[in-house]
Queue: 3 jobs
Job 1
Amino acid sequence: MPDNKILNIQKLGFQWQTEDPFLMTVHHKDAYPQGNDELGPIASLEGRNLGEDFTIKDGFRMYHGKAVPGFPAHPHKGFETVTIVLEGFVDHFDSTGASGRYGNGDVQWLTTGKGCLHSEMFPLVHKDQDNPLELFQIWLNLAAKNKTANPDYKMLWAEDIPVIELTDTAGKKTTVRLITGKLEGETSLEPAAASWAHDPNHHVGIYLIHLEPEAGVTLPSVSKTLNRNLYFYQGKTIHVEGTAIQASHSVKLAGDQEIEITNGSKDAYILVLEGEPIGEPVAQYGPFVMTTEQEIRDAFDEYRRTQFGGWPWGRYDRVNEREAGRFARHGDGRVEER
């Protein structure tokens, strides 16, 4: 193993291990059936631990949802969620009065900042066909000075996200979806204003790589202090600097070295997370991420007193109408439609 380039190899579980400035990554993949009139699954929900259903049964999970799968209203404070939806849809509502529906390649970049409530439900919009869902949710920390930012979100619509296509001399293709950062001369859409990723000197990169069989790609040298992790989540075998890596493994890589990745005989799908560390203390309890234990206690006190502005939507598991389409309605009244 080239120990100056590959620093660690680890098997992936449900929640993937990350490094500063990232806090957590989860990969959701559920084979939801046809939807019913409530936009929930037409299948029976008997035998599930509804409200805490994290075990795959009949190909899917309900998570905290009881009628519609997903995550009813819950609080966050002090960090950002970057939700990359590869397939399916997410309905968003939050305590600022914002709402939306996004999916099929869209990315929502949510700054929770000084605190907000939001819900993430997975509406099964199709009654005449299955409703598969696949998404990543990445938690990105905020620097201490930005933990009091106003909660807000930014949409990176699928049609606008840069896609890099590389073809080698043998005609093998590599495709990279650049969620944030710079790669192969391309620059991503601008992330949220309060984000650690907003400053290009922080070298935050989030990108998805698809390698055709026998295709390859080289990650550039960035900096000695960069934290860089590769998550090989679907495929068979890739080679990183000549070392065979099986699917469902992560690889920690040196940030100041070029890294050559070549694929084997089956299509490979990879998520890369990289960035300069924030380098500040992290105090985390559930959905609150601050820098000291006292700040965590203060956050809970504030939530109990204010509910971070309260919940204006009635149901905690609210969804949009079936035919709503993709849109974002922000707390200031601004509307984006796709």
Job 2
Amino acid sequence: MTDTPTQLFIGGAWVDAADGATMPVDDPATGDILCHVADAGPKDAKLAEDAAVQAQEEWARTAPRVRSEILRRAYEIIVGRTDELAHLMTAEMGKPLAEARGEVAYAAEFFRWFSEEAVRIDGGLATLPDGRNRMLLSRRPVGPCLLITPWNFPLAMGTRKIGPAVAAGCTMVLKPAPQTPLSSLALAAILKEAGLPDGVLNVVTTSRAGEVCEPLLRGGRIRKLSFTGSTAVGQLLLAQSAQAVVRTSMELGGNAPFVVFEDADLDKAVDGAMVAKMRNMGEACTAANRFFVHRSVAEEFGRRLAERMGALVVGPGTRDGVDVGPLIDRRGRAKVEELVADAVERGAQVLVGGRTPEGPGCFYPPTVLADVDPGSRLMDTEIFGPVAAILTFDDEDEVIRRANDTPWGLVGYVFTEGLDRALRVSERLEVGMVGLNTGLVSNPAAPFGGVKQSGLGREGGRVGIDEFLEYQYLAVPVR
């Protein structure tokens, strides 16, 4: 921890908060304080905004190849420091080291992907239908951006936003989640080392998010907001962005259905369930929340899933052989406890888990519930924990109706061996992404995002850079 920056990163310099405030960073596996980092206030946010605004014009004129090579160098640095970054992430967030190493690779890939997209920003030339004018289209950076990232993937959510912003020529103010500021600060240091000019990226760690973000959104100089987090906070930020008509990208909550039909390969389905449910201890917006299993295979599916979940080893993420680390904090664990208790009171059968262990840390065991009442609270709440809730269904139309009966629409999972059914059901699900016979959809080369209250816009893929670019149309008379 001694080599990890703990100050704010503004204008290329490491500085303390203007009022000297700091905030603790806790280890969720023990409850101990790892360190203290600067706790930014409105004055610090203004300084970060000033730095981003001042750097914008020159950064926008920087050659695409230069921006590309900075991202490529940052990619190589991240890959070379995989173990160091993984240990840092595990310390502040709790995920097992194997998962943390996987996230480092995932995070780095966003920089490699967008290093390649930086040199492919194009426009167009055409004669308009009336023949009087030529239309010259160019694409330019939207301007200074506010990036707000969550705690559950603290490195990858940073690179998924910073990568396209750098590639497009935008400057940034990054506000990471207060639970996991260290990964973002380490990322800022890496980008500085890779040659990113001063002021292009500014990082403000804070426990005073409202005081820091609202003035930036209402002030008119920030032209783009990219947010990943809860739907409730996203709605608040949208309202704050409206006054200055700030362009927004929102990656919000999810309530993913996991549908297992009677013709599914149960080995594939259980493997997929383990990934879709247990990635990051279930603390992911893509996590399978509602398991709809055809009545004819529900008992066998539940038995196999409970056996697999029960075999997972729970403990500190740094310990060898651990599969499941702690939840992010005691409030997050209390939420999971309450949701499970409510389901059990309504008649759910606990196949495995369901009891909070004694001792330090924010641990909760992998849990499988069968015969869950559709009225249970965990049916319309993001669980954000290692709990699989199984419900049965009898026919296709019924399960599609129930799967779509939610205000969210991020991702759905479908397991069936029938091609016609696979395509038909996928097309009818009201989601932005579908995992067909797989429990993993996230990939830097694919557009990530949802519909309904799961968000606006897409991150990653060929379209990810579009969120940070504007079109300009130039009319040129034909002579």
Job 3
Amino acid sequence: MRNQYLDSLRGFALLGLSLTNLFFMANFAYGYVSPVTRDGVESALSLLTTVFADGRFRTLFCLVFGAALVIQYKAHNKGVDNLFVIKSRLCVLGIFGVLHGYLLWPGDILLNYALSGLLALMWLDAKHRLLSVALLTVLPVILLVILSILVSEPGFDRSSAEYATLLSSLPVSYAELLSENISHFNMMIILIPLATLWNTLGLMLLGMELYERGWFSGQAFVSAKMMWAWWWGSVLASLLIWSNNETILGQMLETLNWLAAIPMALCYLVLLQAIHQLWPKLSQVLAIVGRYSLSLYLLQSVVGILVFHFLFPATRVSFTRVEYFGFFLALTLVQVILAILLDRAKKTGPAEYLLKRCVRHLSHM
């Protein structure tokens, strides 16, 4: 029987991913480039994105992924066969990630999650994971801070010569997009063993530890004081990053946002626990979305790439945060409706179906 609370967390994290990913689907090299003049709405959305979205949903997804590994391991008899199935799922997921990164969007997370998940299996029966969590989440951030000092990039807006050069190099055909994807995803693959693999692994181990302590079953509760301490700690760190985002210091602090994302993700865990108890219908909708998370994640990329690069390429230049946020809301609604329709039709998501078939095939080899 599925854990509905865990599915609701997965669905919540999945829907939130596109809030920041859409920027990089339009322009993978630089993400969102600010307009010359910024009104109050632009600044407010920028602040809200930094505080509540940047890295938060990715972090929450990692925690859920780690908890799910423990659940899968304990769902059947522990043994070589069960581990083989889990490893097969992760390997197939990694292949999905490679295809996704090269053919659609190089910001793929599936390959990184698959590799981190394979390493996380070594901690399935570990009794103490918190030291590993601390080292694996902090050390990659320190490395990236050092790299940001050595390779600093000047900030620019839409009036700069650098932006004009960027616009002239944007792909105008799928062949050009594919060439750009190959270049960018090769760089992402190089970055995985340097930093992102270990940070993701640390977050997955934290998810494992939280599951063992009852965080994903409603057995553990956090005091209001502790939750508000996490909340304000994350908010204040994000405010510091946001207020310096166009300076050299801001580039260094931006990497530290990986750490500020952890307490906010823990707050989301508590929030979704409250929603699960107080508004079960909303929790059920999020859980339905979570059950189709792989198909919907790939759908986000398909829609984003189609809109920004083929249907409405001018949006890569014209969209401000207001338009991006409107696009995010529309895409969220489409995903929720599609998931509900698939659930009512008792259909498996296409990506989930393909994943199961591939794993079943490997199990019978």
